[in-house]
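Work Package 4 report. The design task specified in the project plan requires that, given a folded chain encoded as structure tokens, an amino acid be chosen for each position. We show below one input record used in the internal validation round.
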């Protein structure tokens, strides 16, 4: 019996259009999705994979413009779509895909397969990767092997975990890290899975979240100038700090006066932050992001603030999710 898969489109490079021939200059979200994934391709994919495909447009933006309101709309639409379908494929720009994927991984209450994809290049590029990525995402969305693995992403026949997904290159087809499997011969094959709780096993429910806290990200560098920042409108702040999430003394002095939640992570994007290494977390009321980079730490902190402002509980969330 055919499985029902719905494709939700949000724009991005995959529907972009070049403005100058074969140059790298282009505008996101200028084409309709039908111009990328033609009826003939849809029919072919349906036949080969034995699936029914529906397509719905919910946004038409470059993902650099994805804001909290868009994020909430996307999650609520995906939650609703997951009730009537076996799998959901989300077409998304790559610039902020790691944030949207992780947010969905935390707030969706569904056992349906949820898969994000997009493209690194436009349709009029010599190396357009969009159609192959859509096809790979459809394979994973309809695969029994993908059940209960949380939200996933597919690019270049590689399958990624939402929690581990990071964009690590601005142009390459192999732009992402966090691979846990492969698409091979119309099958989804997995080598790893995340040990962190997700979807049905988190306390965050998109049905109960209608507004997200204002969480800012501050990049900490040598000779940090605290006068550049105004925290008066912030509910919390992510400190993208140096090395083992270390901060200059003048930054510590300024931040210690703030009466908002403060989470420290590392600008290296590849650490497990030490408790009380060079920083006394208790003294300065810091929460550790552990191995989450700033982009993911912000998402988790916004979700956490929908539940509590208790720093100890929120530290537990960072340890668990």
């Amino acid at each position: 019996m055919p499985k029902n898969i719905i494709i939700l489109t949000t724009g991005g490079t995959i529907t972009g259009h070049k403005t100058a021939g074969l140059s790298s200059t282009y505008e996101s979200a200028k084409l309709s999705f039908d111009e990328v994934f033609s009826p003939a391709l849809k029919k072919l994919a349906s036949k080969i994979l034995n699936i029914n495909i529906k397509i719905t447009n919910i946004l038409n933006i470059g993902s650099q413009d994805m804001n909290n309101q868009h994020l909430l709309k996307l999650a609520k639409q995906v939650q609703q779509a997951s009730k009537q379908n076996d799998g959901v494929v989300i077409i998304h720009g790559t610039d902020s895909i790691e944030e949207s994927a992780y947010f969905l991984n935390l707030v969706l209450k569904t056992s349906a397969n949820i898969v994000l994809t997009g493209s690194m290049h436009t349709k009029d590029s010599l190396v357009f990767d969009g159609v192959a990525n859509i096809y790979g995402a459809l394979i994973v969305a309809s695969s029994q092997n993908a059940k209960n693995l949380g939200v996933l992403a597919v690019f270049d026949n590689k399958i990624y975990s939402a929690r581990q997904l990071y964009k690590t290159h601005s142009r390459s087809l192999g732009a992402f890290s966090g691979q846990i499997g492969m698409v091979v011969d119309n099958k989804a094959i997995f080598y790893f899975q995340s040990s962190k709780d997700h979807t049905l096993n988190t306390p965050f429910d998109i049905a109960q979240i209608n507004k997200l806290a204002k969480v800012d990200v501050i990049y900490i560098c040598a000779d940090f100038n605290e006068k550049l920042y105004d925290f008066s409108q912030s509910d919390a702040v992510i400190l993208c700090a140096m090395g083992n999430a270390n901060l200059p003394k003048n930054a510590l002095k300024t931040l210690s006066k703030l009466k908002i939640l403060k989470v420290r992570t590392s600008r290296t994007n590849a650490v497990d932050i030490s408790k009380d290494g060079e920083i006394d977390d208790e003294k300065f009321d810091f929460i550790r992001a552990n191995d989450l980079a700033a982009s993911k730490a912000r998402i988790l902190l916004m979700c956490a603030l929908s539940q509590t402002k208790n720093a100890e509980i929120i530290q537990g969330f960072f340890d668990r999710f």
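The first strand starts at residue 3 and ends at 11. Validation will be extended to a larger panel in the next phase.
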